[in-house]
Amino acid sequence: MTSFSKKKTKLFSLAKLVFLIPITIIILLLIFLWSSSSTIFSGNIIHLCFQSRKLNDLYCISAGTHPNLEAPSSFSSNVTTKFVDDLQQKSTRLGIPIPPGYHAFRNGMVKSDEELLVAYNDVEDQLEMHRSWTSTSQNHNATLCDGRGIYVYELPTKFNKDLVSQCADMVPWVDLCDYFSNDAMGEAVQKLGKGWYQTHQYSLELIFHSRVMNHPCRVLNISEAELFYVPFYAGLDVLRWHFKNVTNDVKDSLGLELVKWLESQPTWFKRSGKDHIFVLGKISWDFRRYSNSNWGSRFLELDEMQNPVKLLIERQPWHLNDIGIPHPTFFHPQSDNDITKWQLKLLNESRKSLISFAGAARPDAPESIRSMLINQCTSTSECKFMNCSSGSCDQPESVIELFIESEFCLQPPGDSPTRKSVFDSLISGCIPVIFDPFTAYYQYPWHLPQDYKKYSVFIDQEDVRNMKVNVVDRLMKIPEGEKQNMRRYIIYELLPGLVYGDPKSKLEKFQDAFSITMNNLFERLTRLEL
């Protein structure tokens, strides 16, 4: 063989090897993607979805015969072919309807009805897990502890008490100091009777702290504890910077200091933080600041904060360890008798109005349906509107009296999906009308039942926005018997578990929101150990 032929043969072999390398890489990549993927068959579309381990998001590559098919946005979910039947029915497993087309979703994302369904069902899977942690115990005494205790960390005061001391200038237009008096229940509201207070919507951290300190399962010896409560008032920390011109580093600093302090505690590493409890009195998004935003902190995005349980007034729907618990209401009963007397009052109350809405328009939020609801409400004598932009809603007696006199209370989303007003209406015996499942159905699995039709009416906000439904007409068609059944369920079954009792309360017959939460936290720990 000539020298030229040998060189030609070597070059051919080298070229063949170079050609095989990318093919091998492509095959290995496809194997990886397929092994970490799920396939959805939806009509004429096939979605191959794989998990991004770095971003913890699911991405889908779609192919099909639909013209102008757009690739779906990312969404967090464990997608499987079990959703095929749901996609055909266009409703979630809980019965939340998914109207056809593309929709505005969280934070400006646009999703198709199929993507919405998968995302919603993922949330429902998480709620099912939360409900599996529900305790069946009705015991309020020390016997429920069964040798298990909860330890309350004695944090440096900069993490709680010092934050409360800034109450006077935390929010520019209101002095919060009076609201934080009386163990954060606020000043008494005599007009509504015993147990009623001017409670602020951001008081949960202080209220919960007061109750834990008096809980029968609280232990002073840290070695006897199974749960560890961290009384960091992260909501107040965020709130104090909302209206001040400070850097993001300043907003994040106290949370980082708290994590550093916890890492100095041997108990923090006992179960990798899974037995630690945080209570945050603002919505989850306030602690999950986006990279291009100046709003809020990054506290819940820290790696160290992924394992602990976070109890919030509004959870991030795709984080399993975010658990929603009720907003504080104005009612803080001291005894079973306080609750029973209020229940009887509600049952005997004459409901003068079919519908009421306490709220304000959102002119700067074009996607909001509030203006449309206000127009529908004010155009009929069947509906009473209380304009909160005029300050009318600042008085608890005004809001509660309106709800007591109403059969239905409209509860559209505001600055975020959830509303304190949902709980004000429920403890007033007023049936809430929900327009977004994230307002209540996807938030509070320990305090509201899975069957939302027992206590509420759902009208999809898309139907309101597209003028497919007149809310007043829809509610007028609901039979009297159906309304009575819902109201009695709310008053007898739900109401006691939606209020936070006075820290000095001695409830024996009823479990309040705090007791339900504590029992379920212990139950969750038991299930995790099985």
From TrEMBL:
Pfam families: Exostosin_GT47. It is a single-pass type II membrane protein. It comes from the Eukaryota. PANTHER family: EXOSTOSIN HEPARAN SULFATE GLYCOSYLTRANSFERASE -RELATED, XYLOGLUCAN-SPECIFIC GALACTURONOSYLTRANSFERASE 1-LIKE. The lineage of its organism: Eukaryota, Viridiplantae, Streptophyta, Embryophyta, Tracheophyta. Keywords: Glycosyltransferase, Golgi apparatus, Membrane, Signal-anchor, Transferase, Transmembrane, Transmembrane helix. Residues 145-468 form the Exostosin GT47 domain. It is found in: Golgi apparatus membrane. Belongs to the glycosyltransferase 47 family. GO terms for molecular function: glycosyltransferase activity. GO terms for cellular component: Golgi membrane. It comes from Solanum pinnatisectum. The keyword Glycosyltransferase applies. The chain crosses the membrane at residues 12-34. This is Exostosin GT47 domain-containing protein.
